[in-house]
Amino acid sequence: MSAQIFMLPDLGEGLTEADILEWRVAVGDTVQIDQIVAEVETAKAAVEVPVPFEGTVLELHAAPGDTLTVGSPLITISGSTPTANTGTDSATESAAHEKYRDEERAGSGNVLIGYGTGHDSRPRRRRTRAVADPGERVSSHSPQAATSAPRVISPVVRELANRGGVDLTGIHGTGPGTIILRHDVEQAIAAAIPITPSETGRAAPIRFESTRIPLKGLRKVVAEKLSVSRREIPDATTWVDVDATELLRARRTINTALPREDQLSLMALLARLTLAALARFPELNASVDTERGEIVRHGYVNLGVAAQTPRGLVVPVLPRADTLTTVELARQLRETVDTARAGKLTPDRLGGGTFTLNNYGVFGVDGSTPIINHPEAAILGIGRILDRAWVIDGEVTVRKITQISLSFDHRVCDGGAAGGFLRAFGDLIENPASALGWL
């Protein structure tokens, strides 16, 4: 069989490119159908890529850190030598090739999984090697190289380390698979700069480094999506301070009656109150179909939850959150955020949201005017909770106060509905029993 060139497959969700994170094979390695040959990073998740061919690796068409577009060459595999026994393996392999081609032509998001599912269950032969500079060859037979070489993908990160005088072998990466990220190097540089008085008695000057960072991957998609939001959505923001004392008390009371694995986080309770407020003001759970000139009010809530991860800010979605009990909501929220931080969310979990909840209070800030997650119509934000003076029945007392804000698409509703929703949400925070009476 002649050499087979495997193209970067369709990654689903309209994604058109991916960065090479790591090669799992080297030139000369033998691979089998369905073997993982590379890990790539799309704008939404890290994805393992299996190959639908078997044979010997002849060429890797990109280096770690390179960006490839869907449909461009990824890896070249030589044809395996046909066996003299039967034609079973050859026929199965051919069927797997055809399955891959059919899925690829159809634009299916399934092309990354299930190659050769009818193939026999022989153990996969796999060689791994350490990630190094593009063009730098590391032997797949060297255990020392596989364990000692720093896991650096981006040339920008390596250049930043070189200018900062940082030894990469001493840094533990916080990225997927302990990959060293830019902020890991920046922290190492900051830790190495002593802030001591100079000979003149003044503090030593702060040193800054100029650098250029490619706008690619997740950062690129975030930039494009937020730019579209600002261009297309005539947004407005409203906010109010509310007393969260009773909400925190209710959480403590509820958790005393729940097993440890079902304990409710504050975010889970806020999500429950968000759903209750949306039930009263469904016009906020909407989007605008500009092509048909229609406002679409969704009959379900796919709740997006902003989460900070090593790859940046992502908004994983809890599908049909309106059908979940509070305990189920807490469980799914915990699992979803953990998966997002590990970079293992599938693309379908990062799209299709109808409303977004953002707890920016975790960053120690009181307020924000969040940008709407296009094509949704609104985003609700929660600031940090602080002890503040509060007047109750004419008396000043100390209460747990937070600021909540709502950015909304002025095309789907006016300030009355937006203010009504925000006030309803605030009232539920101050009197949570009505929304938390059932779990």
Proportion of strand residues? 15-25%
Work out the radius of gyration.
Answer: 26 Å
Major beta sheet summary = 7 strands, mixed
Helix content: 25-40%
Number of strands: 19
> Which descriptor suits the 3D outline?
globular
* Mean pLDDT rating: 79
Q: What is the overall number of helices? A: 10
Q: Ends: how far apart?
A: 61 Å
Q: Could you spell the SSE succession in H and E letters?
A: EEEEEEEEHHHHHEHHEEEEEEHEEEEHH
Secondary structure class reads alpha+beta
Poorly predicted runs are 81-94, 99-148
Strand and helix layout:
Blueprint: E1 4-7, E2 17-23, E3 30-31, E4 36-41, E5 46-50, E6 55-60, E7 67-69, E8 73-77, H1 88-106, H2 143-148, H3 155-164, H4 182-192, H5 217-232, E9 235-243, H6 245-256, H7 266-280, E10 286-289, E11 294-297, E12 303-305, E13 307-309, E14 312-314, E15 317-318, H8 326-341, E16 355-359, E17 378-382, E18 386-392, E19 395-409, H9 415-430, H10 433-436
Parallel strand pairs: 12-16, 16-17
Antiparallel strand pairs: 1-8, 2-4, 2-7, 3-6, 4-5, 6-8, 9-19, 10-11, 12-15, 13-14, 17-19, 18-19
What report would you give on this structure?
The chain has helices at 88-106, 143-148, 155-164, 182-192, 217-232, 245-256, 266-280, 326-341, 415-430, 433-436, and strands spanning 4-7, 17-23, 30-31, 36-41, 46-50, 55-60, 67-69, 73-77, 235-243, 286-289, 294-297, 303-305, 307-309, 312-314, 317-318, 355-359, 378-382, 386-392, 395-409. With 439 residues, the protein is α+β, with helices and mostly antiparallel strands. Helix 3 (155-164) runs parallel beside helix 4, helix 7 (266-280) crosses helix 8 and helix 7 (266-280) packs across helix 9 (415-430).
